[in-house]
Amino acid sequence: MTAQKxxxxxxxxxxxxxxxxxxxxxxxxxxxxxVEVSRLQQEHGVRPCLAAVQVGDDPASSVYVQNKVRxxxxxxxxxxxxxxxxxxxxxELLELVExxxxxxxxxxxxxxxPLPPAIxxxxxxxxxxPAKDVDGFHPVNVGKLSLCQPVxxxxxxxxxxxxxxxxxxxxxGARACIVGRxxxxxxPLAQLLLQRDATVTICHSRTKDLPRVTSEADxxxxxxxxxxxxxxxHIKPGATVVDVGINKVTDEADARELFGAEAEKRIAAIxxxxxxxxxxxxxxxxRSVAGKLTPVPGGVGPLTVAMLMHNxxxxxxxxxxxxxxx
Length: 326
Ligand code: NDP
Hints:
Layout: H1 3-12, E1 18-19, H2 22-44, E2 49-55, H3 59-74, E3 78-84, H4 90-102, E4 108-111, H5 121-127, H6 139-146, H7 155-166, E5 175-179, H8 186-195, E6 199-203, H9 210-214, E7 219-222, E8 240-243, E9 247-249, H10 252-259, H11 263-273, E10 276-278, H12 283-289, E11 292-293, H13 301-319
Helix pairs in contact: 1-12, 2-13, 3-13, 7-8, 7-13, 10-11
């Protein structure tokens, strides 16, 4: 049976994919981080510290950084927000990163991306001390990940693994397909899945006959940046579908087409604040074909911040060679 036919039949029988609650898993991880922070403080007098660097005042970046700083404080970590003017030069930014590298009490450094076009992003990421690279983007850490060495893995892919494992989804032996080959999501996620013995395929904009490839996957991950791109035809009936995308929908007709029976509350959100969020997976179609599906919002998004907190505590422990490393 084709996925489209399956979707029609499932819809007629009112079958719905189980939603994988990312917020719930993120809360579990944050509780574990808070316990570990308190233990480090009591047993070693160490309070892990995250330094977040932002250049310019892009509203989305400001929301992300504030969220990271607020979450750090809530879990008992120390945090610093270095907000630099949009006109900051590359040399000035590098100087700040080097200063943070030298300060022993700083355990994690994150430079919020994207940076203004005049700044060489790769050079900035290369300058961060790999031991403090809590985003896992430094070439040394990228190399360690591909060599299966202990490393701080990028937050979004690491969060997806936590979500799968904590929901009891079998990775070993599964066919996993990732659509998207970015350095922050697709590629590191492929390494993490491979380490856990999945058979991994990575697709991208040049992949031929995408639905044929994706519809073989037991675990399908979409990290593309295109609203509702993954449709019923891309999904193997019963598969686990992880939707990484975050896209804004501003048009009522689009919301109706994407959300089906749940469109009304999305349309109300558009009326209230001008947009509603949708992932890279078509939610209404995926709900009737997939076995399990991450919602947007409330799926992968909350895990990214939770894993940043986890990574900062791991960096603090490793830099200070403290025990009970996980
Ligand atoms: P990038 O733009 O860096 O990469 C997108 C990838 O999608 C590329 O590899 C591209 O292929 C591929 N792609 C584009 N069009 C197609 C197509 N028609 N068919 C197949 N593949 C295609 O995106 P990111 O990885 O940075 O982000 C992806 C999405 O995830 C975005 O919506 C972003 O907002 C979201 N995101 C969410 C996070 C979270 O915390 N939830 C964190 C990070 C990202 P090619 O390489 O050939 O160009």
